């Protein structure tokens, strides 16, 4: 529309000011302090000393806008967002811009990770009106919260043909004075169109689409966007997209004998292998960076997000199950080592993220992207001077390390990947040769190379500890903690690692203690690390959203299958009943992202994309199916089918947008196997049967343990289980489909064969 055309905003224009960097920590007392100083969100606290009269999202700001009849300026971002730092420094620390904002607008700062519901509404508006989206997001609203103009990043002053924030604010003030009815009706019209355009619902009696057809189309769409040389999807920037990889492994599971099935597996394993070798994987301090700026997974955007670590750990451990390759299990453990060390709170919770930018070890006030993670060749030579006995040409440890990890004297970062010269002369480690080739090159054994490289990495990790660390976003979100709970449960179960399982239980207890209001029976969205390292809450706390419930329920189901402690199953059932009460769309099927009774959230959205995180509706479709098998509640099976029917248009046309939901659709089509183990929980014979189950990737199964107690949670819910008993006094397994069961099995190898029956004797070549 005419009103919005002059601030159309897209990522292309964002490159203009990327050469400006964060200031270092200031020792002088703050000239300004606003009410964000009372908040706990690290993102809001980053703006607590701006010369802007910021309000957090809430009643106080809404009432001020109404009483003074002023438009609202809503600025949305998150604490590890590079462009949010840039806009904060350039515009929100600018006295002149701060005064214009404070005098003429009610200014609201919002952390999108605390309030994803509000973020989604206004991002939907910005994408619809400007054709682009991203953070920081800048939206102008009427006092009753209706958006009328929006964009993303604005430079402070005009830059070429791009208007600066000062100009934009001046024009909006003029329009608000002289053309307000047109602004408001224009915003209203767009909002109404969005309400219609974003509606997702099923007609009465509609069935979900046919799973094999949808899965084939999803596979074809992914194969079409697959990049063969380095794996991954599309060229650059390249994101890990674990939802795609998990779909492909599920697809392989039901299509093992076809060329498509083998192609799906090959695509997945190649992608995971290339990512593990690439610079997106932190070879010195573990974990994965957000994405790669090039197609070879070499130079990353360096921030590390909790949700990436969680989903990638599951993808890698699954790849180890299907391939039997140790590399994948090692990477999964390596991710959890990073999370346990750097993203874990002593209470058992998990922090959200680490920033990309930090102050270089050489000093100086300016933060630089990747400074914490990169190395010069001379640093490496200085740190690794040891002569390697018996190597060709009496090499030193540095020679072997430099060869293996592609380190160059002039730095190994292509200038195209470094438009602002921050990585000049620096090296991002990337594995350039197999251990075998490196061993051959230096005339030493493979074992010796492994040992030397591990020692070199450990030495570099020690040096890194003395560098200034990137900013840590220490808020703890229920949804991401739920994802991480799943990761520890999965990896712990597959590896039979008691420490990882203990950490998973600790995480489950943390969520119950700090992110669950037992009186009101609601999940809380977030809690925070206090100044004395204690867990803090804000008042009133933020109530949980759909993804908090869905991801925590999924985590609890995974925790039950990993530990077979029934309390987690019981709590999952309680949470699902609560989720249904709070978010279910009785009319159209599926779940709303946020509580429909919150009138400050103008659009009732159902997330229809599995992106960086899976959509909560996709995860809920699986949760409902699994819970129906654990509890015998048939209505949950029906709710799951109704949810899938509501999304059938999207599933049929663009299944690539919902790979996680396609997995749920497949699970429903192929029906879940119930694997029932009768035995004493900690007995060795029970453990052997469980190890056989956990060694296989079985996407369509529920696992349960019966220990002879007829009053147990499971026996009460599923009376048919009472007839299953141990044979000859030893642990016994039954494999059932719709409670038609196999003959009892007591031998772990026989159980493995039974679970693979109808496919092959081995998981994958």
UniProtKB/TrEMBL annotation:
One GO term (biological process): carbohydrate metabolic process
A Pfam family hit: Thioredox_DsbH
Stored CDD domains: SSP411
Residue ranges of domain Spermatogenesis-associated protein 20-like TRX in the record: 33-195
Origin: domain of life: Eukaryota
SUPFAM superfamilies the UniProt entry points to: Six-hairpin glycosidases, Thioredoxin-like
Protein name: Spermatosis associated 20
């Amino acid at each position: 529309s005419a009103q919005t055309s002059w601030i159309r905003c897209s990522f292309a224009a964002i490159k203009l000011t990327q050469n400006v960097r964060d200031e270092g920590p200031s020792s002088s007392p703050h000239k300004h302090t606003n009410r964000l100083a009372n908040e706990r969100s690290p993102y809001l606290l980053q703006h607590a000393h701006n010369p802007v009269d910021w309000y957090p999202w809430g009643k106080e700001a809404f009432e001020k806008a109404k009483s003074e009849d002023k438009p609202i300026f809503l600025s949305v971002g998150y604490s590890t967002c590079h462009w949010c730092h840039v806009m904060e420094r350039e515009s929100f620390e600018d006295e002149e811009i701060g005064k214009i904002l404070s005098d003429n607008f009610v200014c609201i700062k919002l952390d999108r990770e605390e309030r994803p519901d509000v973020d989604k509404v206004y991002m939907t508006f910005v994408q619809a009106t400007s054709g682009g989206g991203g953070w920081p997001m800048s939206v102008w609203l009427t006092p009753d919260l209706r958006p009328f103009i929006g964009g993303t990043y604005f430079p402070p002053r005009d830059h070429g043909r791009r208007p600066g924030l000062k100009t934009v604010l001046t024009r909006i003030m003029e329009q608000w004075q002289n053309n307000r009815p047109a602004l408001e009706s224009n915003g209203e019209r767009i909002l109404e169109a969005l309400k219609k355009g974003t509606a997702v619902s099923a007609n009465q009696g509609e069935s979900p689409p046919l799973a094999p057809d949808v899965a084939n189309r999803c596979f074809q769409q992914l194969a079409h966007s697959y990049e063969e040389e380095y794996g991954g999807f599309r060229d650059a920037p390249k994101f890990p997209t674990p939802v795609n990889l998990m779909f492909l492994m599920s697809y392989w599971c039901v299509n093992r004998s076809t060329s498509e099935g083998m192609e799906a597996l090959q695509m997945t394993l190649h992608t995971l292998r290339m990512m593990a070798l690439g610079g997106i994987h932190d070879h010195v301090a573990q974990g994965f960076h957000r994405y790669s700026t090039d197609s070879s997974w070499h130079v990353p955007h360096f921030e590390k997000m909790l949700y990436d670590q969680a989903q990638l750990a599951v993808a890698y451990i699954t790849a180890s199950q299907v391939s039997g390759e140790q590399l994948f299990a090692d990477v999964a453990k390596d991710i959890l080592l990073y999370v346990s060390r750097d993203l874990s709170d002593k209470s058992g919770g998990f922090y959200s993220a680490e920033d990309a930018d930090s102050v270089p070890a050489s000093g100086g006030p300016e933060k630089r992207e990747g400074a914490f993670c990169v190395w010069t060749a001379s640093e490496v030579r200085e740190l690794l001077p040891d002569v390697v006995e018996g190597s060709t040409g009496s090499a030193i440890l540095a020679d072997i390390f430099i060869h293996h990890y592609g380190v160059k004297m002039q730095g190994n970062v292509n200038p195209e990947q470094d438009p602002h010269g921050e990585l000049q002369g620096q090296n991002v480690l990337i594995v350039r040769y197999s251990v075998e080739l490196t061993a051959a090159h230096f005339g030493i054994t493979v074992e010796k190379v492994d040992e030397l490289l591990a020692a070199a990495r450990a030495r570099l990790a020690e040096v890194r500890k003395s560098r200034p660390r990137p900013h840590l976003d220490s808020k703890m979100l229920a949804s991401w903690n739920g994802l991480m709970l799943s990761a520890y449960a999965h990896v712990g179960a597959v590896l039979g690692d008691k420490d990882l399982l203990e950490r998973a239980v600790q995480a489950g207890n943390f969520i119950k203690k700090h992110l669950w209001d037992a009186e009101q029976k609601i999940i809380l969205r977030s809690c925070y690390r206090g100044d004395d390292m204690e867990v803090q809450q804000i008042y009133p706390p933020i109530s949980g959203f759909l993804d908090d419930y869905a991801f925590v329920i999924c985590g609890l189901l995974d925790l039950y299958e990993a530990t077979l402690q029934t309390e987690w199953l019981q709590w999952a059932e309680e949470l699902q009943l609560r989720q249904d009460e709070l978010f279910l769309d009785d009319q159209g099927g599926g779940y709303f992202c946020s509580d429909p009774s919150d009138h400050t959230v103008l659009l009732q959205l159902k997330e229809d994309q599995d992106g960086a995180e899976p959509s909560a509706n996709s995860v809920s479709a699986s949760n409902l199916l699994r819970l129906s098998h654990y509890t015998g509640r048939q209505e949950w099976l029906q709710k799951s089918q109704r949810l899938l029917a509501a999304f059938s248009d999207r599933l049929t046309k663009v299944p690539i947008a919902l790979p996680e939901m396609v997995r749920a659709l497949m699970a429903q089509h192929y029906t879940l196997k119930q694997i029932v183990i009768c035995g004493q929980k900690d007995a060795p014979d029970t453990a052997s049967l469980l190890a056989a189950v956990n060694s296989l990737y079985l996407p369509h199964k529920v696992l349960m343990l019966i220990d002879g107690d007829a009053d147990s949670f499971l026996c009460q819910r599923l009376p048919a289980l009472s007839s299953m008993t141990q044979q000859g006094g030893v642990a016994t397994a039954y494999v059932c489909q719709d409670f038609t069961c196999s003959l009892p099995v007591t031998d772990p190898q026989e159980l493995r064969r039974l679970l693979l029956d109808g496919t092959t004797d081995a998981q994958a070549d």
